[in-house]
Amino acid sequence: MEHFRHVLASGHFPLSKYCREHISLTVTQLDIQDLDALPQNLSEILAKFPNIDSVIINVGIQQYLNFSPESFLSSIPQNKGTPSTTAITAEINTNLTGPVILARLIASHFLSTAPLKPATIAFVTSGLAYVPVPIFPLYCATKSALHYFVVALRAQLQGTPLSVVEIVPPYVATELDSGHKDVLEEFFKGNMPKGVDAKTYVEGVIRGLEANGEDGKVPKLIGDGFPRKAADAWVEAYAPMAKIFGLEL
């Protein structure tokens, strides 16, 4: 946190406890699933903090969803992971629709209020956006869709001072999988990967955001380990074809 002049954190749940840990941190509340209220709520935040020049959109829910009529994993009850309409809609809105709406609003704000000032919009996707696992079909799909949105958005904003960044995290020790630890343990059969410490991971992301390229912009992609290998393999495989559509991967 000390690398930045001031940090504003906003989330679905109250984050006031973090203010005691970080003097330069201000928190506010923003419900990513309340799509209709996003424009007004974000407008109020930006009016209160007009000097914001970097936004990291880090939202996501991860659900075990089983679309098979039989239990996908032998030790997991059949009724766990029922893909209800509510569950499907919540995951899509949180992981994809909400971030896309935020991107529209934030890009418009940056370009209308300070069209010549460098600014950054970063999106947290996932290594599973590149290599999906069958236990999280919708999580993988939404993160993959967000990845492709980032690529297209970057192309559309080329020529502006906005940097569009994709942050590809590894498996980080957070509460993201708190509702399906049993599923992960059954799926990996004793080879459950150890989550990266959240503080260590964030410090790595900050270092990546500070590493501006020759064009003065933040790197297109920030990631390490397996996710970085997956992303680099994707770039190497598709970059020649992407150029046909005006994309620089």
What does this entry show, briefly?
This protein has 249 residues and is of the alpha/beta class. It is 40% helix and 12% strand. Helix 1 (38-48) runs parallel beside helix 2 and helix 2 (85-113) packs parallel to helix 3 (137-156).
Description:
This protein has 249 residues and is of the alpha/beta class. It has one domain (54-245): NAD(P)-binding Rossmann-like Domain (Rossmann fold, 3-Layer(aba) Sandwich). It starts with 6 loop residues before the first strand and ends in a 7-residue tail after the last helix. The longest helix has 29 residues, at 85-113. Mean pLDDT is 88; it is low at 12-20. The protein has six helices and six strands; from the N terminus they run E-E-H-E-H-E-H-E-H-H-E-H. Helix content is 40%, strand content 12%.
Oligomer: single chain
Low-confidence stretches: 12-20
Overall domain count? 1
Q: First CA to last CA: what distance?
A: 30 Å
How many DSSP-defined strands? 6
Q: What do we call the CATH topology?
A: Rossmann fold
Mind telling me the CATH superfamily name?
NAD(P)-binding Rossmann-like Domain
Structural class: alpha/beta
Topology record:
Blueprint: E1 7-11, E2 25-29, H1 38-48, E3 54-57, H2 85-113, E4 119-124, H3 137-156, E5 162-168, H4 181-188, H5 198-210, E6 221-223, H6 225-242
Parallel strand pairs: 1-2, 3-4, 4-5, 5-6
Helix pairs in contact: 1-2, 2-3
